[in-house]
Structure formats: structure tokens, C-alpha cells
Design a protein that fits this description.
With 295 residues, this protein is an alpha/beta fold. Helices cover 15% and strands 26% of the residues.
Length: 295
């Protein structure tokens, strides 16, 4: 038999595979020569600065709880001129346009009829609190003022010396402020100016339980107070759109100032001055606001 012809099989050479494309890191600054002793330190500082610039900025720390921010009525970096810068929530103290208190003058007054103020005669009690800024009574019990067609509830009394609002250049040595809250959270402040004279029976019932140290609280043993006993016989008043007169200086507050003052005894006033610093905010710009004066 004839031998089978040989067949030469040629296998093509294997093509070299392309290496995977690697990510090329950004070139680093050239390392300095060893002979420069400070070059290594400068290199490290340069790289640290580059890495810091590439990192996202850290978020700002959250603001402090506004209830913990220290403020006062004295002149200085915590006083009324600085309130607006102490916390973002206090911005209205410096940026608001309807701030309280104001100086009520004839040029700002519009004379005319206004709704009567039918103060209730309910008896209430509460807790007397020396806040460190002044003396307050946190009201317990219902004392209702019908106002603008809705019931407003008395929530606290604040005792100011001197009085905050000035009226036709008159500045009273003290005022008792009745703070009411409406059904939708609105606030109204009724200021009762006080001038020196005979002792005030309403104040006596509170001063008997006056806390002597800052942050002390004393609860009245029974509800013996009635707004009617504090108010003057003459119920005419001034009214304007204002604000709270302490941080956060919230605007949209109805401010009512009784036209007729009531009396406060000299010893009663001196006792308040001994346990409470002066706590009246300076008068603020009216910014064209009108004041309604009832007849």
C-alpha cells in the first residue's frame, strides 16, 4: 500500500493580549531631592493641602437651643442691642419692623371707637417664678377675655420696672402685663401702667409668695386673683400691632395699653426692684404704625 501523504498543519501564533487599561492616578508633585532637609516637610504639607481641598466641606454645626441662649436687659454683648445676633431665631429683634414697645405720641394716634374689653371676673391662681430676667406669674385656671369674636385665655402675668410703653412723654415706674393667647396661637399683651400711690391689693396677694432667688418658683396656695381687681375703672386704651418685647421678639402680637394707671405702693415697688433687675426693653421705631385710641 502506498504511504499516506503527510499534511503539515500550521497553527498561527497567538496574538498577544492587550493589558487591561488601568486608571492612571493624578500625578503627584515630584518628590524633592533628599539633600534638601525641609523639602520632605513641604511635600507632605502640599499633599495634605491638596487632599483637604478635594474633600467635601464639613456641614456647619446646628445652632444651639434658643432656650439656652443667655441674654439680658443690660447694655453690653447680651443686651437688647445685641439680641438679634445671639441666635437665628432672634433675628426679628433686629430685623423686625413692628417691634415693641413704642413711644405713643399724638402724631401716631388715630382717635375713634374701638371694641370694649370685657375682662372676665373668674378667679385664678398660679406659680410665681423668678426667671432671672424678672418676675412672672404662670396662670393656673381659666381667665377669659373675649376679643375679636373669640375667647382669649390668660396664660401669664409679667411685672416690668419701669413700664415699657411710654405715653406722651410719660414713663411709669412699673407696669403689670397680662399675656393672653388666642384659639389659633395668637398673642395679646394688655399693659396696666402703675404709678406711686397707695399699696395695691392685687399685687400684695402675689408679693406675699414672691420667690427671692433666680429660678425659684412659689405656687399660690389658692386661686385668689381676678383681673377685674387689677384694672383701672377707666377702661379706655391704646392699641397697636407689635411684638413680644423679649427674645425671640415674635411679631404679630396685639398690644393694648390701658390709658389710666393704677397705684403701686413705694415699698411694693422697692421689693420688686430688689429681686428683679430692670427689665424694660428700650422703645422701638414705630415705622409708620398707627395707634388706635379709644374714646
Amino acid at each position: 500500500a502506498e504511504p499516506l501523504p503527510s499534511v503539515e498543519v500550521r497553527i498561527p501564533p497567538e496574538r498577544p493580549r492587550k493589558p487591561a487599561k488601568a486608571e492612571i492616578p493624578p500625578p503627584a508633585p515630584p518628590r524633592p531631592a533628599v539633600q534638601d532637609p525641609g523639602a520632605s516637610r513641604r511635600y507632605i504639607q502640599t499633599r495634605a493641602a491638596e487632599l483637604a481641598a478635594a474633600a467635601p466641606p464639613a456641614p456647619p454645626p446646628p445652632p444651639a437651643d434658643p432656650r439656652t441662649v443667655r441674654w439680658d436687659h443690660a447694655s453690653g454683648d447680651k443686651g437688647p442691642q445685641a439680641w438679634g445676633s445671639l441666635h437665628p431665631d432672634f433675628a426679628a429683634c433686629s430685623q423686625g419692623t413692628r417691634q415693641s414697645p413704642i413711644h405713643i405720641t399724638a402724631q401716631d394716634v388715630a382717635v375713634g371707637p374701638a371694641d370694649p374689653l370685657p375682662f372676665g371676673h373668674q378667679f385664678f391662681g398660679g406659680t410665681v417664678w423668678n426667671t432671672g430676667h424678672g418676675l412672672e406669674l404662670e396662670v393656673e385656671g381659666a381667665s377669659i377675655l373675649p376679643l375679636r369674636g373669640a375667647p382669649w385665655r390668660l396664660v401669664r402675668l409679667q411685672f416690668r420696672h419701669p413700664a415699657e410703653e411710654r405715653v406722651h412723654l410719660q414713663n411709669y415706674p412699673m407696669a403689670t402685663e397680662l399675656v393672653y393667647q388666642g384659639p389659633n396661637g395668637q398673642m395679646a399683651v394688655v399693659s396696666v401702667p402703675m404709678q406711686l400711690g397707695s399699696p395695691n391689693a392685687f399685687i400684695t396677694r402675689i408679693w406675699t409668695h414672691m420667690p427671692l432667688d433666680a429660678q425659684d418658683r412659689v405656687r399660690l396656695p389658692q386661686p385668689v386673683l381676678s383681673v377685674g381687681e387689677l384694672l383701672p375703672q377707666d377702661r379706655r386704651y391704646y392699641q397697636y400691632a407689635g411684638s413680644l418685647s423679649a427674645p425671640p421678639c415674635t411679631e404679630g402680637v396685639l398690644r393694648i395699653v390701658m390709658k389710666a394707671p393704677v397705684s403701686i405702693g413705694l415699698e411694693q415697688l422697692r421689693l420688686l426692684q430688689r429681686v428683679s433687675p430692670p427689665n424694660a426693653r428700650p422703645v422701638q421705631a414705630t415705622n409708620g404704625r398707627l395707634v388706635r385710641e379709644t374714646q
